Structure formats: C-alpha cells, structure tokens
C-alpha cells in the first residue's frame, strides 16, 4: 500500500475566482509546487480530488475541464512533480460530490492507498469532511500558506 497527498483544486492548487475553466486564467497558488515536491520526496502519491459543478451548471464542458486538467498536470510535470491522477465530480449531488467520500474511495481502490497514512489538503470544510469520511489520516485546511503545511507531511 502507498500513501497519498490528496489536493483539492480550486482554492488549493489555483486561485479560485469561480468556475475556473480556461488555462490562461489558471493561476497557481504560491508554494504549491514546492509543497508537492516535498510530498513526492517523502513518498506521497499526489492525487487531485475536485468537485466541478460548473459542468452540470452549464458554465463549461467536460472537454473544457480536460483542457485545463492537461495544462495543470503538464505544469506540475515541468516542475518535476507527477500528478498520479485527477478525480472530479461534475454533478451537483451524488456519492462523489464533496463532502461525500466517493472521489477518495475511487482513488483508494485504483492505487491501493493506505488512507490512514495519507494527507488531504483543501480550502473548505467540505473538502476535509470528504477526507474524514474516506478515512484519510490527516485532513488539513489550506489557508493560503504552504510553508505552514509542511509539518503535515
């Protein structure tokens, strides 16, 4: 079994100005690359878990989401960071919509993750609640400073 660093996307990886769906408007939060490099060096598999209700709301499409995801993962790769996978929920409800744990459980099954040894970082309580429901050992609220989170790894 492996341990994972679960990251929410909007507000944790990138600046959340509401339904981010264009690469040219995807602004990475300062420190996210350094934080993820540190996690990777400690053996964490990095997985993004993100609710993307803008798809069901009609603000953007699955194709738009795929383009932004490709941009995001390529930028991480250019920084020497491997994003193992991105799990998303396009719906307004259901077992994958945070605070439900579905996205985490799908990742656990796919990668044989030791949830108790894993860390979940999100900028909202529903992100943390989803991690707790999935059995993630450490659920940490991101409040804008990645240096403050290094001790969570």
Write structural notes for this entry.
Helices cover 31% and strands 17% of the residues. It is an alpha/beta fold and 153 residues long. The chain has one domain: HAD superfamily/HAD-like (Rossmann fold, 3-Layer(aba) Sandwich). A five-stranded parallel β-sheet has the order 3-2-1-4-5, with helices on both faces. Strand 2, helix 2 and strand 3 (83-89) form a beta-alpha-beta unit. The radius of gyration is 14 Å and the shape is globular. 34% of the residues are buried. The mean pLDDT is 96.
Explain the layout of strands and helices.
Elements: E1 4-7, H1 32-41, E2 45-51, H2 62-78, E3 83-89, H3 102-111, E4 119-122, H4 125-134, E5 138-141
Parallel strand pairs: 1-2, 1-4, 2-3, 4-5
